[in-house]
Amino acid sequence: MKTILTKVIAITVFLFWMSSTLLSQVITVTPTLPTATDQVVVTFDATLGNAALKDFAGDIYAHTGVNVDGIEQWAYVIGAWGVNTAQPKLTRSGSNPNLYTLTISPSIREFYKVPAEKKITKLCFVFRSADGSKQTSPDILYNVYEPGLSLTLSNPLKDQPIYELNSAVAIEASANNSTSLSIFIDNIQVNTTTNATISYSYPASAYGNHWIKAVASDATSTLADSVNIIVRPAVITEELPAGVKPGINYIDNTTVTLVLKDPAAKKSYAFAFGDFSDWLIKADYYMKRTSDGKYYWITLSGLDPNKEYGFQYNVDGNITIADPYSEKLLDPWSDQYIVDSTYSGLKQYPVGKTTGIVSIFKTGQQPYPWQVTNFSNPDKSKLIIYELLVRDFTHAHSYARVADSIAYFKRLGVNVIELMPINEFDGNLSWGYNPSFYFAPDKYYGPANELKRLVDVAHQNGIAVVLDLVLNHSYGQSPFLKLYFDKNTNKPTVDNPWYNVQSNFTNPDAQWGYDFNHESIETQALVDSISRFWMSEYKVDGFRFDFTKGFSNTPHTSSDPWGGQYDAARITILERMANKIWEYKSDAYVIAEHLSDNAEETVLANHGLMLWGNLNGSYLDAGMGFIPNSNFSGISYKSRGWNNPNLIGYMESHDEERSMYKNLTSGNSDGAYSVKNLKTALNRSKLTSLFLIPVPGPKMIWQFGEVGYDFSIDLNGRTGEKPIRWDYMNNADRSLLFSHYATLNKLKREYAPFSGTDFTTSFSGVIKTMRLTSGAETAVIIGNFDVKSMVTTVSFPTTGKWYEFFSQDSVTITSTDLNLTLGAGAYRMFTNTRLIQKDTYTSTPIIQADNSGVWLNVYPNPSNGSSINILAGSKVPTEAEVSVYSLSGQKLATLFTGTIIDQELIQVQNNYRAGIYIISVKTKTTTLSQKLVIF
């Protein structure tokens, strides 16, 4: 379940920019060509555009500002968003209740209080109901003209250039300060006047493209404005070429076939247009249609293999969409904020030539050189999943920097990285739960090949990668939505093959975007194609599916607001989806954020799905020292009556409050012992993690929980950006918490009782205990969750010698009951075989390789002051230098120079103070660096 950040106007102006010509029919302006010094009357027709305010009986207000100098957008806004008393109120027409006027007086410049030196280029409007429930979308922009000669061709509209044979094309143009105004069709003058306006009705009597041009002149200059229209012929019927499928099909180095699917066979025609057509609708790019009416297609040849081509589809003259299967897109609202260091050489958006999302293809692409092609997923019973949001994990918010952090994951001992949604979503700074395109990685995080490298490097280090997919809903940019969308109701049409008209949830908090119809065979086929694409093209190892309670059409009313009750139809849909995934990759992880009735989750778990197990509230209370609500028994799959350990238990995820934040702000205390003390709070996190990770079954850690991340989920708004605190590793107590997590993670993977099936738990009281057994090995874990010392009796299965792991001490017991005094927050783990506690989390070398075959390993890392091992290696003999640098870039020492092959071991005594250092290996062709933390 997700909270999608409500987009206030400061964001929507970038997300929904469109040209004034596209929306000019929603408003009319008098005078038609206003200048900054004019008084202006704006007339709004509520029945046009998205018609959200049609027949609205209440007051309507204008959120309005101007664009200045072509750069400043939505500047000099009147009032504040949603504050009606500070914003202009529209006047309703007495004769037509859907017509409203707004007078901008005494002039545009004075009304908006724009300084005289600023050039005003556009008026900007969003009209909104007084209660805020309804508003126009997208933003309405209208040109403001400079004094002197000016001209606009107001009709035909540039976004609606397609006409039927013999239809009447109304041509209208207006000019300021002209002495003559003329209309030309295909360079032949058909009308002229000395007036300020001109019109002409063109009969569209010939198929093909036609240029309509308006020309205005005064005594010294001439202006022209034009539009290309096309009178379309009948569609050619021809079957699909063999082997092609919906989307972009690469035929050879200079040829592609574009295929657009119309499953309902409701559309009449389609054009492809883009760089190859100079962004004009041309007869040469009229798409053929199959005999069943379900596919439109065109083959483009003679393409430059080294060029990226942007394109869109125009369907039925009034729908413009990107290809829904695009693997790369251009976004006119968000791309401008992508920096070159994240995505170098990004193709520029064709500003002024089109609007909306643009698809990209390139015929001469080189395949990614995968280093690992046969990765086997780690055993589900030993999974330690690390959930992260790329945006908030690295300062560069990039796939590349996550890949470069692989040594961190290896040291921590996780074996699955779960990425929050990375397929294209609306905007840049979202959590990703507002998806729009399902086959394209979001460019804000970097190029596609960097995502592939992330997966590849993870696989080199034995770590699987899981993608979070959002298939309950999508948002308004989705072509699947736009192809069948009713602008009057702002909902999918009844014949939309992929979406429901209305969500099956009446609870508004359980509705996001537009609801997929998972009972539709078209949606099921789409779901299958999405999962197969990411497994084949990016070699990902599985998926976490968001809000799977929404994957049916079963009505959920106020009696079941979150859809938790048993739903047989939903089970059938999810099992079918999982089976299709396993057909392609038999060991793929299929994870559901389901959180429903246990009877339903039991069926899904027994079928092989893994399910999220949210015990956040209980673990938070336990960590803070509040016992009544600290029972986290539900972390055990056995407590739920499941046959298989398919419960992914966690105390934090992206969706819950952070435990360290709660410890520090709301922790309990007794005398001098206070959970609000940082050191104590970190030790409490050790305690709770000891009662999380060893519990058999897969477990999940939310990013930086292993170092005690202590910023609230609500900082900067729930989904807002959060501070990135790699510097936490400089704090000795936080680094020790990391060590604690890493040690437990290693034991999870290698100590059989932690992944076995023979275990018992007692998690309800102040003293919580757990016994785990596998064969001859047994562990007994005890923890005091109170804020004061407690005396307890611990039961052991046998007498004899037992080894306490954390103190590395032993005790010989003659009775199976042992009396212990545990201080506040204290814990013990006894095993009947000795487990040596050392730098278990750093004892395995980290493989950090690039495509040249050079690698660098540094361990133990973090180092506690003992010797440091550096492995530098290469597939072939390579001259290299290994050096150590400060974070400021100062070279502190050269550790090795010479030839490396296979691996060169360099042992370094710790002569450096606590801090972060950079270990670097340089060759003639590559440089690899890795951080070293000394505490």
UniProtKB/TrEMBL annotation:
SMART domains, sorted = Aamy (SM00642)
- GO BP annotations listed: carbohydrate metabolic process
InterPro entries per record: GH, GH13_cat_dom, Ig-like_fold, Ig_E-set, Secre_tail
Q: Which CDD domains match?
A: AmyAc_4
Q: Please list the residue ranges annotated as the Glycosyl hydrolase family 13 catalytic domain.
A: 387-748
| Family, similarity comment | Belongs to the glycosyl hydrolase 13 family.
Q: What is this protein called?
A: Por secretion system C-terminal sorting domain-containing protein
Q: Which organism is it from?
A: Williamwhitmania taraxaci
The top of its lineage is: Bacteria, Pseudomonadati, Bacteroidota, Bacteroidia, Bacteroidales
